[in-house]
Amino acid sequence: MNSPASSSGGATAAAAALDAAALRADFPLLSGRPAEDPLIYLDSAATAQRPQAVIDAEIDYLVRANAAVHRGAHMLAADATELFEDARATVAGFVGAEAEQLVWTSGATAGVNLVAYAIGNATAGRGAPAGTRFALRPGDEIVVTESEHHANLIPWQELAARTGAVLRHIPVREDGTLDLDAAADLLGPRTRIVAFPHVSNVLGIVNPVDRIVALAREAGALTVLDACQSAPHLPLDLPATGVDLAVFSGHKMLGPNAIGGLYGRADVLDALPPFLTGGSMITTVTLDQAEYLPPPQRFEAGTQPVSQAIGLAAAVRYLARVGMPAVHAHESALERRMRDGLREIPGIRLLGDAEGVDRVALASFEVEGVHAHDAGQFLDSRGIAVRVGHHCAAPLHRRFGMTASVRASAALYTTDADVDAFLDAVAGIRPFFGEV
């Protein structure tokens, strides 16, 4: 499912409803800086800034209701449990899901690992009989894309190594789009898992989820979606995409660190065996065996990230109040401004500069004759924070013949003036290093 289509007039109206300069007042790190130490924050794809409402929600919980959830019989524990489960329902609703379809994790990386290890446990014969549908045999195939973040690549490499499965990948074309013709040839009767990003964290391109899901369904494969770079920027209805499982990360969507979500179709979560085991995820335990709770608690062993979950719920309420269509429209305008400006600067090579595709406000580029780290330091000296390196996507950079790039990524609090200052600074990089 691609980002929602809209007419240019509708997008303009939605964008007009979002005043990024006014929203900045809600973000202490952005609004409280002295004039002599300005900050243009263009690293939101790595970690987004948090509004005061998120900070307040965590502090309020810790001050008024801090207790172990799902455990104590006292009133404080009951209050904490209610807040924790209300947060689950709030975050699940934000992505179109029911509360029981959302498993709390420490982040998207933990979510992918949970799924990979659960499938490994099913392969080893653990869990309910329904879990045998996920068991892998030597020669079965796990398909990813050439554009994966390492978090949606290495867990599958490890699962393949443990089970004898074969890891294959959908190639990326020169313009950054996925080669779906190659994907159609690649997926077949041995394909068991298809894992792919909704949005590339390097290219910013919104991948055609509906087409990939259709190919996977035809092959009878399980689909796993990395929604880290879409959940903060696009209206998202995970059940409507048709994916079986999806992960997202709180700190990229205005929320706290160490919290994320694993969405799953009810029948898929019901069939998966647990990964981590221990307290809070069991019904009956003897010295010889244990029986497990249904999802989502089956996958939530041990002490839970309660304040973080409450903070993430506050973050998605903030995003919902602003309106995700307005966020997407505002950031689409920023993306066009950024990309058009970078194209005009001599010596700049944009990665994945495809035309006519949906995008989020993210651009990665190479500066001719200047290493990405040097370019990043130059921008930092002018108060502009960007990401440099391979962005946990080394194979994708290798595909484009480079080891590192500069990545600028915007969010709802980014202004036109921020983008213009960034472009002006980028234009000065090569002259500063004597490359012009």
From TrEMBL:
InterPro entries attached to this UniProt entry: Aminotrans_V_dom (IPR000192), Cys_dSase_SufS (IPR010970), PyrdxlP-dep_Trfase (IPR015424), PyrdxlP-dep_Trfase_major (IPR015421), PyrdxlP-dep_Trfase_small (IPR015422)
Transferase recorded as keyword: yes
Residue ranges of domain Aminotransferase class V in the record: 40-422
Keywords assigned: Pyridoxal phosphate, Transferase
GO molecular function, one term: cysteine desulfurase activity
Record CDD domains: SufS_like
Names of the cofactor(s): pyridoxal 5'-phosphate
Enzyme Commission number: 2.8.1.7
Catalyzed chemical reaction(s): (sulfur carrier)-H + L-cysteine = (sulfur carrier)-SH + L-alanine
PANTHER family linked to this entry: CYSTEINE DESULFURASE, CYSTEINE DESULFURASE 1, CHLOROPLASTIC
NCBIfam families for this protein: sufS
Family of this protein: Belongs to the class-V pyridoxal-phosphate-dependent aminotransferase family. Csd subfamily.
Listed name of the protein: cysteine desulfurase
Organism listed in the record: Microbacterium aquimaris
Lineage: Bacteria, Bacillati, Actinomycetota, Actinomycetes, Micrococcales
